[in-house]
Amino acid sequence: MKYICLILLFAVACTTQATISKYESIKICIYGATPGGIAAALAASQSGENVLLIASGDHLGGLFTSGLSHSDFHSYESLSGTFLEVSKRVKAYYENTYGVDSPQLAASFEGTFAEPKVNELILKEMMEAYSNLTIIKEAQLNGLDRNGNTIKSATFLTKKGDINVEAAVFIDGTYEGDLMAMAGVPYEVGREGKYKFGESLAPEEGDDELQGYNFRFCATKEADNRATVVMPEGYNRKDFLDLIPILESGDIQHVFGYPSKCLFKAHLPPLPNDKYDINDVSNGLVRLSMPGHNLGWPEGDQNQRLDIFQDHLRYNVGLLYFLQNDETVPENFQKEALEWGWCLDEFEDYGNLPPELYVREARRMQGQYIYTQKDSDYYSENDARALYHADAIAMGDYGNNCHGTRHIGPLIGGKHDGEFYNPVPPYQIPYRVLLPQDVNNLLVPVAVSSSHVGFSALRLEPIWMALGQAAGHAAGLAVKNNVSVQEVNISLLQDMLHKDGSTTIYVSDVLPGDPDFLAVQWWGTQGGLHGLELKPESGARGKNIHGQYFEAAPGHALNSEIELAPAIRERWISLANTLGIVEVALENTQTRGEFIRQAYAHFMGGN
């Protein structure tokens, strides 16, 4: 059985050290085939330059193809760019495969819920469309040649020897920030204290704690597609005996459930073909996440990471194996547990278990701008929007979310500490979080520059895809114009992103594909949409649809047909004047939409 984490394939080093291949024609090199890395590769490939995507293992897609199928966003209106394109393709796949009235299509939730194998299929199809994109698997970063502020080349160890890559721009798409760290870029591991950045969600004092990791299993109750849960290596039933009094107490009602009073969170609604994305139970009595057991991961070598991987596997799988097989388990819980198993048609090369551990947090770059709690908070008490960023290259709406950084007491029966779930308005993410302070040809879209609390709002696959897409386009611009990544023209980058269907500000009623999308996104990047609506009394989220999914965030619609109020017209005229748009060009505009369309037309005509 082939079952090994993709980033751990080189725990046993190759003996051959001679360089077997030298890549000199590559302009943009991405290390890490996570969703952020893949989105960067897709965007960079649009430049027409030669792009190289290097995966440390034989699996592509990170957690997006490794069990995290209930994607973390709150409202469909927040989706754009690469993630939205993937979702549309997923939806088309289920419609073409099963039919327009099929339960599979309905279960895909507009293509945002997919079986892991379908997500992987779609990503591969998208990458195969670019003849200038080369993918190398099973290559581990082994060295960097940095000359002053420039990375000249990187060496990757393969089973046959070294690969040396010279590139104009490098992108670190790893969850761990491995390339960034090897390049000597400053970074943090752990939590900052409350007063360093004035964050209410931070601890009083800084420490080395990390958000806990766990596996995102893909499970089912369908007998025809149910794989037996096998005893994991190193299993010891004594590790799970503390579970029995908890089950007998009545505080746990189900083995699999949603969202609480269960042992395994089975996200609802189910995925297509009656599969379930299994996760850690937030604030639960028994957890899959294991904070404290992962502290060696960010800076550990491959053997250390393999040990941590196996430790989590032993506990996460062992928990279900114990429930299904141990004679001390109450009959009702054992009967329910035996109804479940892993999906036979998922992760077939890995024993039907996810090939990757859910690394929620590792290294965090300390770059040109450090994203903190304030960046996803309200701009002011009189504004529905979050902090304005003129150099925004992505946005999100999920909020600061941490599953805990420390476990107090026994693994079963104790309690997580450092846990928080903080609803916020949709927020902008500035380009500067991708930029190192002193390396001029490196972009970091996954281990982004942030505090622990700030990172807890950014550590989501749709956002990482958006950041990767921005990094890929920025790399293309840097190569085309022969400038550093810090010197990339932000207005050109934002325009490129908007034309590629990616949003830099949340506008709930003008989505990608709308005729006014480019104009409205442009106006939003100028700050025109801030202060348009008051902070909603109902809170940051719309009406709940189900689970973690909501209708559009209140206070974030443009309402194009509303007549311009005098105060807004005066402010917008002033803003237009700073952009070189004369007032006379806007005199005949009556509504919000007319004003923005006219301003955009004049601005683009003059530029």
Q: Write down how many β-strands occur, each being a DSSP E stretch of 2 or more residues.
A: 23
| Cα end-to-end separation | 60 Å
Helix count, DSSP H or I runs of 4 or more residues: 15
Radius of gyration: 24 Å
Percentage of residues in strands: 15-25%
Q: What's the shape? A: globular
| Widest sheet: strand ordering | 11-15-10-14-13-12
Helix content: 25-40%
Mean pLDDT: 95
* Largest β-sheet summary: 6 strands, mixed
> What structural class do you assign from the helix and strand content?
alpha/beta
Low-confidence stretches: 1-19
Walk me through what this model shows:
The protein has 607 residues and is α/β, with parallel strands linked by helices. Helices cover 28% and strands 17% of the residues. It has 15 helices and 23 strands. The chain has a 6-stranded mixed β-sheet with strand order 11-15-10-14-13-12. β13 and β14 form a beta hairpin. α1 runs parallel beside α11. The chain is globular, with a radius of gyration of 24 Å.
